[in-house]
């Protein structure tokens, strides 16, 4: 891995391969390893960059007292500039999809394409008036839970509240993926967990109308209905948006159905490159 200095910390990233750059931004409380199957699949044809977002993975804690999706997007911009990545294709998973949307709203045509997996616009994934949202904040309860139970138990409790309406396999249909995800959360400190959650909750999603970047939204059929609705909204808002549902997959759709996800996004990349993707089978 390599490191990239920012004003108040050091970001860790990894790059491999040559060709058109693909930049991968992981989900909340995960790390760049969440994209490992995609890295292995695409590295022979593309330049792959995976970033460990502040508070996550090798990057870990930075000096900021408060995080935001806008800050994470600033970091993404700075990294792309430092590596001189021209017309990258941006991949975002869950929290990472927010970061990519923020980037697209700032630069509607700078990226060659975007792939959003388990895409969310806001947290919770239902509309709440910005003027009311601060008064409904779960941050005090979250802080108490973190102080008493720690990040892993707090994350499990969050999952349980979602499962009440979506079923056991919402996060992932694969028990190994669920276990690895929960283990990754255990590597996040209490203070960083709180800052990341705050960034998710406070984010006010941008208007994506006018974004001309071709965008593919992919989610699993076990995804929470409100999240799927947000994914549909993204696909409809951008000028060249489309969405794909993969069966037997949950929120971590790229890990639940890696072969299907890779085939679908490879066909999308071939379309961006202007090559014939008609012979590539995309299982759903």
TrEMBL record:
Any single GO CC term annotated in Swiss-Prot or TrEMBL for this entry: membrane
* Signal peptide range: none
Any one Gene Ontology molecular-function term assigned to this protein's record:
hydrolase activity
Keyword list (alphabetical) reads: Hydrolase
Instruction: Show the stretches that span the lipid bilayer.
Output: none
- Is the keyword Amino-acid biosynthesis assigned to this protein? no
Q: Start and end of every AB hydrolase-1 domain?
A: 22-264
Q: Does the keyword Metal-binding apply?
A: no
- Tell me the superkingdom of the source: Archaea
Protein name per the record: Alpha/beta hydrolase
Organism this protein belongs to: Natrarchaeobius chitinivorans
